[in-house]
Amino acid sequence: MSGKTWTAVDDYIVASLFEPDPALDAVLAANRGQGLPAIDVSAAQGKLLSLLVRIRGAKKVLEIGTLGGYSTIWMARGLPADGKVVTLELDPHHAKVALSNFERAGVSDRVELRLGPALQSLSELERENAGPFDLVFIDADKPNNPNYLTWVMRLARSGTVIVCDNVIRDGAVLNKDGSDANVEGARAAFSFIGGEKRLTGTAIQTVGAKGYDGFAIAIVD
């Protein structure tokens, strides 16, 4: 089965289950227009994140890696009126585009963007007693996955849901040669989740508009 079929099925899912969404279409158009890499989650994946927020009953969400804010907006939409997403972004240009997108989508009141290295921002969140978070989405530089997960555990509590994106990488996660830092980051996420006694996790392989990849999903016991 080809990537063309995967994309066509994604299009079918969206056409069958989604209402037209000019605001999110405008977000993706703005990202393209501002030269951001086209590495946002797909619409189907974004809605999954929104549903996970709702299923968890989350009020406090942490996102590591904002890009243009597409996934942030999906999660913010799943929150109650008094909920908040704290999203961490390193690149000032990405952050500027994201802030504009939050305004465009009408979720600025539910999103706090922190600019700077994520590990520094995570340390600041701990110092501020900003946790615990109900759900965490990790979608940033892959080699830092184990460092992010270490910090997330300090900002979590029993019942916190953790979602880590891009852990299958076209099946390259099976490679043990260590030549690709992103693959090593994916393998490190599996090692962390599998070795952390406080976590119960699994992974979901995905195919679709974004190719062959997947999410690791865990809950803090």
Tertiary shape: globular
Largest beta sheet: what is the strand line-up?
3-2-1-4-5-7-6
Written as H for each helix and E for each strand, in order along the chain, the element string is: HHHEHEHEHEHEHEE
* Cα-based radius of gyration, to the nearest Å: 17 Å
Which structural class should the secondary elements be placed in? Answer: alpha/beta
Low-confidence stretches: none
Number of E strands = 7
What is the percentage of strand-forming residues?
A: 15-25%
User: Helix proportion of residues, in percent?
Assistant: 40-55%
Query: What average pLDDT do the residues reach?
Result: 97
The fourth-level CATH homologous superfamily is Vaccinia Virus protein VP39
In the CATH hierarchy, what is the architecture at level 2? Answer: 3-Layer(aba) Sandwich
Largest β sheet strand count, sense and barrel closure: 7 strands, mixed
Oligomer: single chain
Number of separate structural domains: 1
